[in-house]
Amino acid sequence: MVFAHLGAFFIDKFLGNYIEDIDSHQLKISLWNGDITLNNVYLKTSALKDLNLPFDIETGYLEKLKIHLPWKHLYVQPTKIEIEGLYILLSRKTDVNYDPEKEEKDEYEKKMKQVEKVEQFRFEKEQYENDAKSADHKDTVVERLQFYILRNL
After folding, report:
1. I need a labelling partner for 146 at 20 to 30 A (CA). Which of 63, 91, 94, 152 fits?
2. C-alpha separations of 129 from 50, 122, 123, 124, 146 in Å
3. Which terms are listed as keywords in the entry (predicted)?
């Protein structure tokens, strides 16, 4: 039960921009096999907004999302993500009116996001360097696991 809530937290952390309201009842975790399965979830209508595609998501449904984490060989085997039953209803964007103020605002927001990412990276780098200087700092197991899972994805 604790693992389901913890798994829901991490999935919400990484996929929360794309999937609506993740519930621990939709989640099945087989810890020893390294399988995490998420069933019957809805996609957010804003999931693809940042990509500036010529269509919008009206509704989206995902029957099964399966994530396999190879715990025994985490450093060498890839993390696998399988998607089954992805249904998306798209609508074409009909507004082709060019708004220079909106365009300028969107470009400014993109630049600010990039600046925030760079600042966050610098902060984390400085924090890591400061922690590395102290003799008693060790990476936690969770930090290392998270790093290797995302690296092998």
Report:
1. 63
2. 33, 10, 10, 8, 19
3. Coiled coil, Transport
Please state, in angstroms and rounded to a whole number, the distance separating the CA atoms of residues 36 and 3: 10
User: Is residue 41 within 8 Å of residue 55, measured between CB atoms?
Assistant: no
Task: Give bridge partners of residue 88 from the DSSP assignment.
Answer: 60
CB 74 within 8 A of CB 152: yes
Q: How far is CA 2 from CA 6, 25, 27, 33, in A?
A: 6, 12, 12, 17
Nearest to 81 by CA among 37, 41, 48: 37
pLDDT per residue of the chain (153 residues) written in tens, 0 to 9: 566 677 777 777 888 888 888 777 788 888 778 888 889 989 988 888 777 788 888 999 999 989 888 877 877 888 899 999 999 999 888 765 667 888 888 889 999 999 998 898 888 888 877 776 664 556 677 777 777 777 776
Centroid of chain to Cα 64: 16
What one-letter code names the amino acid at 100?
Answer: P
